[in-house]
Amino acid sequence: QVQLVESGGGFVQPGGSLRLSCATSGNIFSIAAMDWYRQAPGKQRELVAAISSAGTTNYADSVKGRFTISRDHAKNMVYLQMNSLKSEDTAVYYCNANMTIWYRGSLKGLDAWGQGTLVTVSS
Question: Are strands 28-39 and 46-51 parallel, antiparallel or unpaired?
Fold first, then answer.
């Protein structure tokens, strides 16, 4: 079983900061890209930030300069540092990883998702 578990969400006032973490577990052979998505109430899920295995990062225009994605290859974890938070950042944040896993003695590709962590930005 492969699992992604997010943590670090919560309630914060506008202008505040939060750091999200995503831990992976299971029979993971390798992880390529790791991403953070978010879904606000009544809206579609959107890509917030992505980081490749080489460390190349990409951000949604709405979070550039405020959010930073990073990863720990040794721990197979990905982080999202969120600064200068705005009310429009309120959403459930999901971790996503494109990985290769061991399954029944063979390698298999898997696009895995976490359960999400809620971030609420409000005064």
Answer: antiparallel
Reply yes or no on whether the pLDDT at 1 is more than 90.
Answer: no
Q: What is the pLDDT of residue 123?
A: 95
Tell me the C-alpha distance between 11 and 6, whole Å: 15
CB atoms within 10 A of CB 30: 12
Torsion of CA 27, 39, 55, 3, to 10 degrees: -10
- Return d(Cα 84, Cα 64) in angstroms, integer: 11
Residue 97 corresponds to which amino acid? A
Rounded Cα distance between 46 and 49, Å, is 9
For 60-105, the pLDDT digits (tens) are 999 999 999 999 999 999 999 999 999 999 999 999 999 999 999 9
- 72 near 53, Cβ under 8 Å? no
92-78-33 Cα angle (round to 5): 95
